[in-house]
Design goal:
The chain is mainly α and 167 residues long. The protein is built from 5 helices and no strands.
Length: 167
Amino acid sequence: MTLHRLPDDDRPEGWAPAERAAWAVCAATLSTGGLWWGLLSACAALQLAASLLAPTWGQPASPALVALAWLLGALLTWLAGTWLAMRVALDAQLMRDMARGDQGPLPDAQALDQALHTALHVPVRASRRTAADRLRGALRLHRCLVMAAVCEVLGLLLRGLAPLYCC
């Protein structure tokens, strides 16, 4: 039995090699989300340790409130970053699977939207999103995760420099 390859003209419409490559590159970019989340988590843990070990708790209310507000900001950034990291990881896996699939970028987009809504309560949009819209949305989530990590790093750096200028 001989297997025959379909000529390029018989490829499903809308699933050109360039589109498959775009999905694969997007999946590879999104797969770096775990590194950004690790950086974000390490900085948040260091800020937590600095807040708990700081000698401001026995001082007047002002330094203690500043330390508490700083810690609260670090924890909220970490929570937002954790949610973003989970969404980015999910998108990376979905994009990777789509890039490897033979049926095209979105054989049944409505079923995908409904499954995301059922499992993760992701809002279902009334208008149908194109593959390009989905790629842009996934990369936007990745950029938000990177920004959360950068904010956490800057917060840690500012916290380390603050005692030098508070005296």
